[in-house]
Design a protein that fits this description.
Elements lengths: L8 E5 L3 H13 L3 E5 L2 H11 L5 E5 L7 H11 L5 E5 L3 H6 L9 E3 L4 H14 L3 H5 L4
Parallel strand pairs: 1-2, 1-3, 3-4, 4-5
Length: about 140
């Protein structure tokens, strides 16, 4: 199978199987290569294997064992500047307790539409200067 070497690679971390599968399908249909993890432990394994290739972390905020914020902080120690898009169905006060303040982090609220997900991923990548690579990826 053909693998586009210039495609943006996303590490998706979501413990809800239905949400993770739907999110993965949307991202793949958008031309992205997706590594998916059902929780923080698997995400850490995937990050260790593919650290250099991962362009974006898309992570649930609240997961068993470790928050998305803690996971992102650990990954950014190894890869400073790694862009992160948090996804959450929790109200703002729960996020603030984790140190995630709306307006200060990239946050997509559940439930989200296909268009909202693709648009937010593109926005986060554009802020990091990665949109040029994405634009050249074949559809």
């Amino acid at each position: 199978a053909y693998v586009n070497e210039t495609a943006i690679r996303i590490l998706l971390v979501e413990d809800d199987d239905v949400v993770r599968n739907a999110t993965r399908r949307i991202l793949v249909s958008g031309g992205y290569i997706v590594y998916e993890a059902s929780g923080p432990a698997i995400a850490r394994e995937l990050f260790a294997l593919h650290e250099a290739a991962i362009d974006l972390l898309v992570t649930d905020v609240m997961m068993p064992g470790e928050s998305g914020a803690a996971l992102a902080a650990a990954f950014r120690l190894r890869k400073p500047g790694l862009p992160v898009l948090y996804i959450s169905g929790f109200p703002g006060e729960n996020l603030a307790r984790l140190g995630l303040l709306e307006g200060e982090v990239e946050l997509l609220r559940k439930p989200f539409t296909i268009r909202e997900l693709i648009d937010r991923v593109r926005e986060v990548l554009a802020r990091k200067g990665l949109e040029a690579r994405e634009a050249q990826a074949p559809r």
